[in-house]
Amino acid sequence: MLMLAFSSLVPASLWALPHDFELESREWNGLSRLQDAALDDGIMLRELDSLDYSALSVERPLLILAPENALQAEDLQQFVIHGGRVLLAVENEAADGLLESLSEPIERIGSPPDDASSRYLNANPKLPIVPSPGRHPLLDGEVQALAANHPQAFVSALPPVIAFERWELGLVYDLSLGDGKLLLLGDASVFINLMQPFANNARFSLNALRYLCEGRSICHVDVYAGRFAQDHSFSAGPPPPTAADRLERALAQLNRLAESWSAWKPDERLLRIMTFMLCIGLILLGLTIFPMQSPAFLSYRLRPPAERQPQSDFARNVLELSRRRQASYNLPLALLRDDFERKLMFALYGEQRPGSEHRYSASGIAELAHRFGQRILGDEAELRHQRARLTALLRELADIPSQSHLLILHAKQWNRADLLRLHAEAQACLGALEQGERPSSAASVPKEPRS
User: Fold this and answer.
1) Do strands 107-110 and 153-155 pair parallel, antiparallel, or not at all (unpaired)?
2) DSSP string, 168-231
3) What is the DSSP string of 233-256?
4) Which residue of 62, 70, 247, 265 has the smallest Cβ count within 10 Å?
5) DSSP string, 62-96
6) Band of pLDDT at residue 175, cut at 50, 70 and 90
């Protein structure tokens, strides 16, 4: 309450501490609570201090918090028009040029009047509680109000998602520009650790990140806060080809191929050889179809009759196993892989597990190792060792087929030493998760019973 009283005396954009909006900071003005919630939801936040418009990708949304320098309005607008998604939380005039350049301008009027809201934190008019009636993805999960800290108010003909109770002033806008989205918020301090517990700020913050990511299970968001450099210009490059363009190119290639074939004339000798081969083929076809005694050379088989060959995957596995003199460890290793994968994904993601299509790719293994390091305790050297151990284990498990594939006929074979070694490594990784799990993750991810 003392910290809240202090923050009410000075606007958020003028706080003197040098580490506002740091992702790793657990101080009152940091973003560690937001980052923890985002990680649990599969959203990776990356803090940057230089905005290179030429390097922007529409696949990576932007979170811009309290910019201090004027934004490059034309470049940011073009990024959104070409499919980019941006959440812009302003506390000064840095975004005024962008807002005024919209087809339907939005005017920032600064701090709202003291009577713009009927409820306040600590009875302070500079800390209004703004109700949020209505339906919108930003309000999912019963977001009924936001607690603001020295907010900015807007005036526009566009309807706001969240508005103050009086004076027709907006606080949050959802703007569609071309193929992208621009979310406008008049208070960046909604996201800091101090303000997250008040009203429904925490749920609104997570909803905003989900809205930026369009519901993707794995998403990367670039964060720019305060004073950051801006370089170059945004260039979207050539537009992606449409289905009609691809069809037209395919038809053109087919036409060129047909023209080349129509212009080709075979050599006379080649034509004679082709005619001779066709005659031989017709003779063999006649000998095969019509009832007569087949020549002996036609009974030659490259393989045993089909009825003698195993007709199923299971039969082929049994036949192959019967020919070997040593045991196959493929099945036990496949069971070990599936069981370890199930327990690891449950510990790292809980019930909301992402798909498995990229789990054993280089980026998928790196992401699992990163989340693994977030869940255990230890000094930096120990964390590096544990992440390296998990990375090495996952790379070996990637070569082992799952239970749904052929096991015995797999190209690579394993032995008893491999089984014991991989089992020990898997147990060590799961033990590190179970014994050194951080308190915050322990509260959010339930324990899975051992099978």
Assistant:
1) antiparallel
2) T-EEEEEEEETTEEEEEES-GGGGSTTTTTSTTHHHHHHHHHHHHHTT-SSEEEEEEESS-EEE
3) -----SPPPPHHHHHHHHHHHHHH
4) 265
5) EEEES--SPP-HHHHHHHHHTT-EEEEE-SSGGGH
6) very high
pLDDT over 70, % of the chain: 78
Question: Could you identify the residue written with the tokens 């950051």?
Answer: 228
Q: How far apart are CA 168 and CA 74, in angstroms?
A: 28
DSSP track, 263-310: H----HHHHHHHHHHHHHHHHHHHHHHSSSPPPGGGG--SSS-GGGS-
- The shares of helix, strand and coil residues in the chain, as percent rounded to the nearest 5, are 45, 15, 45
- Look over the chain and give the mean of its residue pLDDT values, rounded to a whole number: 82
Rounded to a whole number of angstroms, the CA Rg of the chain reads 32
For residue 52, the one-letter residue type is D
Give the Cα separation of 401 and 412 in Å (integer): 10
What is the pLDDT, as a whole number, of residue 317? 59
Which residues fall within 8 angstroms of residue 297, CB to CB, at 6 or more apart?
none
CA distance 97 to 244: 38
Which helix (H) or strand (E) segment holds residue 393: the answer is helix 380-397
Mean pLDDT to the nearest integer, 353-368: 74
Torsions phi, psi of 207, nearest 5? -60, -40
CB-count exposure of residue 229 (10 Å: 0-12, 13-18, 19+): exposed
3-class DSSP assignment, residue 353 = coil
- The whole-angstrom separation of Cα 23 and Cα 37 is 12
- To the question of pTM greater than 0.90 for the whole model, the response is no
Contact (Cβ atoms closer than 8 angstroms) between residue 204 and residue 190: yes
Most confident of 79-93, 246-260, 364-378: 79-93
202 or 303: which leads in pLDDT: 202
pLDDT tens per residue, range 417-448: 888 888 888 888 888 888 765 444 433 444 45
State how far the Cα of 53 lies from the Cα of 231, in Å rounded to an integer: 6
Cβ atoms of residues 179 and 10 within 8 Å: no
Tell which residue, 62, 30, 58, 57, has the closest CA to residue 46.
62
Statement: residue 11 has pLDDT above 60: no
**Pairing mode of beta strands 219-225, 43-47:** parallel
DSSP-derived 3-state class of residue 45:
strand
